[in-house]
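sanity check this chain:
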Amino acid sequence: MAASLIDGKLIAAEIRAEVRRGADELRRTRGITPGLAFILVGNDPGSEVYVRSKGKACEELGFRSVTERRAASCSEHELLALIAGFNADPAVHGILVQLPLPRHIDEQRVIEAIDSRKDVDGFHPVNVGKLVLGIPCLRPCTPAGILELLARSGNDPGGKHAVVVGRSNIVGKPVFNMLMQKQPGANAAVTVVHTGVKDITPFVKQADIVIAAMGRPRSITGAMLKPGCVVIDVGMNRIPDPSAKTGTRLVGDVDFASAQGVASAITPVPGGVGLMTIAMLMKNTLQAASSSSGI
């Protein structure tokens, strides 16, 4: 029997609707419109697409947004000064510096320059520390979206064995910490495997929930999965496809065709985790705006 699809498009739309209602209420009761500032350095096509889609989401939800573009030659000093200006602006509740940055700019220094209360990406060390300790904070968007997908699809990770494949600061490490917290929607036993592990199959085979986030196309096959497991595929990989108009197509880190016959539920690529990231960014911005008013 084929696995049921965990519909990221539907769940992301639910979250956006909730955020829109929250933003309307904040504006009505406190006179505050959530504000999000984007900073884009250079002209990377992928980054341009991401920033445009985030700006469109702000418009749809009634947020205020501003985008500052700088040439790839922008100095680190100039970028830090721009961030300082947004830190001091009470109308800006969230600051997002689109990564990656040019090599001459220290990404970690830039992340740390953002006021942690406006760090809607959830990358600031203050928010990372709070996340590990289980203290409420602005959480990284993609991992937070993964937990929402599990909860809203009826796949509670509580008491389950979750295996996270990948250890990035953006997905692997934070989703590990979020899943193991002693709180509703988490409370799982969590194993992390990565490129330093010679053979990940014995670990993946034990998983009730697999979070695939290693950035390698179709690396996890159905033969590696435990029957009835839940698969969350974070991968977004472009591979050649002569039959496609663009010459490429998007696939995940999981071989969907073989995994669908083994898993009980699975996220598609596209249409799964990717759509959740922007929804959770909007939710973080609303949270930051609410916090700024004392809520």
